[in-house]
Design brief:
415 residues, Aspartate Aminotransferase, domain 2, Aspartate Aminotransferase, domain 1, 7-stranded mixed sheet, 4-stranded antiparallel sheet, 13 strands, 35% helix, binds pyridoxal-5'-phosphate
Length: 415
């Protein structure tokens, strides 16, 4: 699932060791489909958000907000969560103000702030991670904070190497310096339970397509903070928070899809309580354990393979492994795995700064990312493929040219 650009839809095949039997039912006739049907029905009651009192907003929006640990008025639906928001926040920045971005982040949480800082004449500062350990320490962020810091943009987890910085510790430092913390939660939200308040994020962006939903942007933020931010908007559009951040008619079909995804995930709770937030937290905890176990298994195997470098090394990580191969292009490994029905693409996955910081240039490496529906059979197929590839790289039983193409026998499943 975690491929960034070319995700592969799960199939309905049995997934014997997935965290919940309900994952075996990801099928058009399964519970996800019936949930969508219910939501479409409720969606017909919806009118333009500007005209709606709070209690009448789309159930999807309320659901997602609750499930991020924020309340109804604390979340925005944006077409592009970073560009839209950076322009709005930067309106009060002045020359001499400082904005911090990190080398670890996806470019979506770097470039919008770079441009916004440039436009405001603010100074840009870089917090750097340690390429040897993959860690971005709170101290590395503290080193670039000052009393002029207006904003720090930090990823909740690296989509390239999986590192999960200590967001809470960074938040405390940023707030002590008088700044605000904008957290890119796109990668993190797919893998762990989220509580924005506990993380200490002032703003938290995520994309439901990373957690089995459709592609749209969501930002969670405190209403009192949002009251201070004035995005460009059309004159007749409402001034009310949060609607003044949401341009025009909301993408209701995407909100309905998001609700379906959250419903589905909450339904995976090992001990359902009937409380959606609690169920979602339980389900995400089970998913995290499931994915971590698989990651650990895969990681132990690949670390022992000759000529393979594993770049994912931080103590706290998502189930995301970046590999390179001595003397071989990671894209060749991707193509070989694709012939076995495994989708583990190669690249920098838009985490360009991180890839360059690691010394991997713009090419990055092979990324293995796990989703809730992956199981030990998938891991076996992946590891067999990597064994073959590395044996061939060592000159043992080098396969013929047939595995250099991207044609696949089966639809690749993302790993
Ligand atoms: C960590 C991270 N941030 C931001 C993004 C951008 O998200 P979107 O594609 O929804 O704009 C991605 C996408 O892969 C990501 O992995």
């Amino acid at each position: 699932m975690d491929t960034g650009t070319d995700e592969t839809a799960p199939t309905a095949s049995a997934r014997p060791n997935c965290p919940s039997p309900r994952l075996n039912q990801i099928a058009p006739s399964g519970p996800g489909a019936s949930t969508i049907g219910r939501l479409w029905a409720s969606g017909r009651l919806i009118r333009r958000p500007a005209a709606l009192p709070a209690r009448r907003r789309l159930p999807a929006a309320r659901l997602l907000q609750r499930n991020l640990g924020v309340s109804f008025r604390e979340a925005l639906w944006l077409e592009d969560w970073a560009f839209d928001f950076s322009r709005a926040l930067a309106k009060t920045w002045r020359p001499g103000d400082e904005v911090v971005v990190t080398r670890l982040d996806h470019d979506a949480n770097v470039r919008p702030w770079v441009y916004a800082a440039e436009a405001a004449g603010a100074t840009l500062r870089w917090a750097e991670f340690d390429p040897a350990t993959g860690e971005l320490s709170p101290q590395a962020v503290a080193a670039v904070l000052s009393d002029r810091t207006r904003l720090v943009a930090l990823t909740g987890a690296s989509n390239l190497i999986g590192t999960r910085p200590d967001v809470r510790a960074v938040s405390d430092l940023v707030h002590a310096a008088g700044g605000l913390l904008y957290v890119d939660g796109v990668h993190l939200t797919a893998h762990v339970p989220i509580d924005i308040g506990a993380l200490g994020a002032d703003f938290f962006g995520c994309s439901p397509y990373k957690f089995l939903g459709p592609h749209c942007g969501v930002v969670g933020a405190r209403p009192d903070l949002l009251e201070q931010v004035h995005p460009d908007k059309l004159l007749p559009a409402t001034e009310v928070v949060p609607e003044r951040f949401e341009f025009g008619t909301l993408p209701y079909e995407l909100l309905a899809g998001t609700t379906a995804a959250i419903d589905f995930l909450a339904g995976l709770a090992p001990s359902p309580s009937g409380d959606r937030r609690q169920d979602l937290a339980g389900a995400m905890t089970a998913i995290e354990e499931h994915e971590d176990r698989l990651r650990d298994r895969i990681e132990q195997h690949v670390r022992a393979l000759p000529g393979v470098t594993v770049w994912s090394r931080a103590a706290r990580r998502t189930p995301t492994l970046l590999l390179t191969f001595d003397g071989r292009d990671a894209a060749d490994a991707y193509r070989h795995l694709a012939t076995l029905g495994v989708n583990a693409p190669a690249g920098s996955f838009y985490a360009l700064e991180a890839s360059r910081w690691l010394g991997l240039g713009d090419d990055g490496g092979l990324r293995i990312g796990l989703a809730p529906y992956n199981n030990d059979d998938d891991a076996d197929r992946l590891l067999d493929g990597l064994d073959q590839f590395t044996r061939a790289s060592q000159g043992v039983g080098r396969p013929g040219s047939s595995w250099a193409g991207v044609m696949t026998r089966t639809q690749p499943r993302s790993l």
